[in-house]
Amino acid sequence: MSSSIGAWPPPLPFWTETLPEKTDGMTRPHLFKGIVPTSAANAAAVLDGFAVIRRAYTAGQEITANARVYVGEEERPDLVDTVLAADGWTDDGFPAWMQEQIGAERFSLVLNTLESVSPPLAAGLGELVGSLMAGWGVPAGGAEAVAFVGNYSGTAFGVHEGYENAFLTHYGPGTKDFYCWPAEEYRKLTGGSDPLFGDYTWLLEHGEHFVLEPGDALFLPERVFHVGRQSEFSVSVAIPLYTFPDAAIVRAWVAPDLLGALLASEPDTHAGTPSPMHPLIDGPGELVRRLSTVTATAFTAAAEKAAAAAEQHAHQRWYTVLSNGGWQQSDHDLARDEVAAAFAADALAPGVSVTVRAPYRLMVTGEQAFLRGCETAADPAVLTPDLVERLNSGPTALPDDPHLIAAIRVLGATGGLAVTTTPEESE
Questions:
Q1: pTM, rounded to two decimals
Q2: What is the pLDDT of residues 384-422, one digit of tens each?
Q3: SS in 3 state form for the chain?
């Protein structure tokens, strides 16, 4: 089943009414036809993003975005350096160029964290992510743009399970056949939950079949098994929504920070005093007692501070994701770093107009400002709610206020601001 919503980005009723209705409460896949305009995302923009990854590789820059190469279902890390270091392709010649580099007719190129190297895709697909957050909810881990490029006969990961809710957007030029199975049905058919590789054509007739054409978007619920197949070259971008189990967030971030603070053992402090040597003849009993005492004390204190630690982490995570336009935060976001480096902080003066870059948001809460996933100190008397709203809405001329101009200089270092006019241009 498929449908079209006829609007971009999808309006609020799409998230509150259409999507739940078409997907049985977000539990079944559904294909939305022709909803992604080429102005928001297209195959050329994806290949431009790959070109940026190649440029960073040549320059020796450390970035989070990465490329993986597959021939058939075999990952070929030995070919990654080849495709990153080779001379570029000519116009409309990417498939032939890729085939020449890897020495194979059919290939799959997977590009992760594409939003960190492609401002056009971050902004265009960010419209989808932004409307999703406003209408459906906020994924605690943010979203990611993952490109699948090639003429592969089957997804290199085989028939596999998706652990997050996701949208698969398709840009062509070829079509993609996509097959889905509910987890329970897949287990009955295959006898387990492991991915299926090789010849699984027998399984396809039992799956729900979707034909993706340029501009289509397939909603793919979490825990659904799926595989994509195509005979012609095409480009797709998946947008997984990282909601993460609560326990995983606590285990990975909240607990280490909390226990790390409670168990800090700097030299010349009581907690940093070395343990004594323990007589061999006495066995480990005394060491057990000492460690048990420290452990119990730490966990007792952690229980008392747990709510405050969780609140602090949730607050920071919430505004980090929202200020980054819904995208996940990347340590080595090349696009952010380049924009921040190019920000003309010295040219800021009264009358200069600045604006928040799409799809990011400036958010001030208490004495903290968040922009493009970065956090800085803020004076709410300077970054007032009215000013924040105007900066988020479009170009705003700076007043003759040295405190505000200083604050804008600091925010410019996040890569989330753009200078739109100089005083001379605005006259």
A1: 0.93
A2: 999 999 999 999 999 999 999 999 999 999 999 999 976
A3: CEECCCCCCCCHHHHHHHHHHHCCCCCCCEEECCCCCCCCCCHHHHHHHHHHHHHHHHHCCCCCCEEEEEECCEECHHHHHHHHHCCCCCCCCHHHHHHHHHCCCCCEEEEECHHHCCHHHHHHHHHHHHHHHHHCCCCCCCECCEEEEECCCCCCCCEEEECCCEEEEEEEECCEEEEEEEHHHHHHHHCCCCCECCCCHHHHCCCEEEEECCCCEEEECCCEEEEEECCCCEEEEEEEECCCCHHHHHHHHHHHHHHHHHCCCCCCCCCCCCCCCCCHHHCCHHHHHHHHHHHHHHHHHHHHHHHHHHHHHHHHHHHHHHHCCCECCCCCCHHHHHHHHHCCHHHCCCCCEEEECCCCCEEEECCEEEECCEEEECCCCCCCHHHHHHHHHCCEECCCCHHHHHHHHHHHCCCCEEEEECHHHHC
